[in-house]
Design goal:
binds S-adenosylmethionine; binds zinc ion
Length: 158
């Protein structure tokens, strides 16, 4: 008797894009997510910073909003081109996710248990070649609302 071809089960992602209290749109858990779950890849066009700097003005005309994810200081993923839901994940100073690099690819993974309805957030940790002045930090002001909020999406310089 012919057997039915085995169906490849593709698990639906436990996340959804909704309006965020932090900023614009965000990504939320639709069910409980265990610590250490790889949730989504940060996809988009891989370009050099040189191309990105030509593509996007750095003069505050767009409120310093960005869909760019730095890969290695030279290359960057532009999620405005071919990006998926990962581009809506906001920053928090008390994150429940982290970005993990594998070559030129970036994945977002949970770093603790996340309850249904919680917003997924990771620490953008923006790093600049220039000095991290109070003005620069204010330009990337953080509205995450965490008790431990450092007030900026800019990383502490090591
Ligand atoms: C990859 S987008 C995230 C999606 C964004 N909420 C939206 O609706 O376009 C990154 C941008 O979102 C904003 N953003 C993300 N997290 C933030 C935070 N904690 N505080 C203030 N703005 C934030 C900043 O403008 C940042 O450049
Ligand atoms: Zn914050």
């Amino acid at each position: 008797m012919p057997t039915e071809p085995e169906k490849t089960k593709r698990r639906k992602r436990p996340i959804a894009v909704r309006n965020s209290r932090i900023h614009g749109r965000g990504v939320f858990a639709t069910e409980q997510i265990s610590k250490g779950t790889r949730l989504i890849e940060y996809t988009g066009e891989i370009i050099t910073w040189k191309v990105a700097d030509h593509r996007y003005a750095d003069d505050g005309s767009n409120g310093y909003h960005t869909f760019l994810f730095d890969i290695d200081g030279k290359k960057v993923i532009d999620a405005a081109v071919g990006g998926n839901a990962a581009r809506w994940i906001n920053h928090s100073c008390a994150p429940n996710c982290q970005a993990v690099g594998e070559g030129d690819r970036i994945f977002i993974e949970s770093i603790r248990t996340i309850k249904p309805g919680d917003e997924l957030v990771y620490d953008y940790g923006f790093v600049f070649q220039e000095r991290h002045t109070p003005e620069l930090k204010a330009r990337y002001r953080c509205l995450c609302g965490a008790k431990a909020c450092r007030g900026t999406m800019v990383a502490k310089k090591k």
